Amino acid sequence: MFGFVKCCSSYRLAFFLIIIAVLGKVYQNDIVQLLQIGAARYLNRAANERAESVPVKFTETRDSIFTAEQLSTYNGENGAPIYLALLGAVFDVSRGIKHYGPGCSYNFFVGRDASVSFVSGEFEHYDPTTADDVLSLKGNDLIELAKWQQFYEKEYTYKGKLIGRFYDEAGQPTVYHKKFLVLLDEAKIAKAQVDELRNRYPGCNIEWSEAKGTRVWCTTTSGDGKEREWSGYPRKLYNRDNKNFHCACVPEAELNDPMFKPYDNCADRATECFYRV
Ligand code: HEM
Question: What domain of life (predicted)?
Fold first, then answer.
């Protein structure tokens, strides 16, 4: 029974193939035309879809000048490259897509200059009027920003300049930019002085207990952990703002320098002092 069905199916198949061959020959031209129309429609649709996914023609010159609007299109969406600006310098960070891609931790920085957030850590709210306004930041923050810029220069590709606070339409540094550079230099000098002081007068050991408050004391390794020949005496060393101080270990020969202040209720040659804030 099953052999009969098989036999009949083979005949039916052969019959259909003959019919198709005959019709194919008769309507050959029509079939070819239909296929051509179908292919043309498919290509048109594909071309349109692609045009929608790449909204901007990206300039790939090395030192371009970008408007804020142009920069915002380099946002990693629909296959666009990923750019960010720092202190008005534009970098291609597409290579770091795991950090900067859509939905990733540092996507906030993409397509804009949000320099302030590099030191404030504020990644939630973007206000274009203040996001790159760095002049009111502290000296150490300016140094930090300059380090971030060096990082991007080293790790990613520099692309050009953003027209705005740091560069004018001709790509020239603005007055604002020059002020920034002056403040950055001052900050570096101030930091070098502080580093030098910290080197000469290492920090004290410090601990806190509820019973005794803050205890400060000097040893031959206090401060940077490196062994030295002297341990010194704890003294208050005030910052440039004259409001905050830290504890410095001062060698005996320099104890009379007026920049050092003794701790209240602590003997002149005491090796440890206690205080409460
Ligand atoms: C002011 C605050 C912060 C800023 C501006 C910042 C910025 C960044 C940026 C831009 C990157 C990507 C660097 C690249 O392109 O390779 C990065 C990477 C990273 N950040 Fe932050 N970050 C901040 C705070 C933090 C904190 C608090 C943590 C830890 C809890 C952290 C952990 C990391 C880690 C682990 C990576 C590297 C991830 C990897 O290489 O896979 N960051 N950060």
Answer: Eukaryota
- Contact present, 168 and 206 (Cβ < 8 Å): no
Contact 147, 155 (CB under 8 A): no
Among protein residues, the one whose CA lies closest to atom 22 of ligand 1: 121
pLDDT in tens, 130-179: 999 999 999 999 999 999 999 999 999 999 999 999 999 999 999 999 99
3-state DSSP helix/strand/coil % of the chain, to nearest 5: 45, 20, 40
**Which pLDDT score is estimated for 126?**
95
- Single pTM value for the model: 0.72
Distance 106 CA to ligand 1 centre (A): 8
**Closest C-alpha to ligand 1, atom 5:** 118
| Residues 206/172, Cβ–Cβ less than 8 Å | no
Segment 78-84 shows an average pLDDT of 96
pLDDT digits (tens, 9 = 90+) for 4-23: 233 334 445 455 555 555 55
Full set of structural domains in the chain with CATH: 64-194 (3.10.120.10), 201-275 (no CATH)
Does the Cβ of 96 fall within 6 Å of ligand 1?
yes
Closest to 224 measured CA to CA, from 204, 206, 239, 208: 204
Tallying the residues shown for the chain, one arrives at 277
Identity of the residue numbered 91: F
User: Residue 99: CB within 6 Å of ligand 1?
Assistant: yes
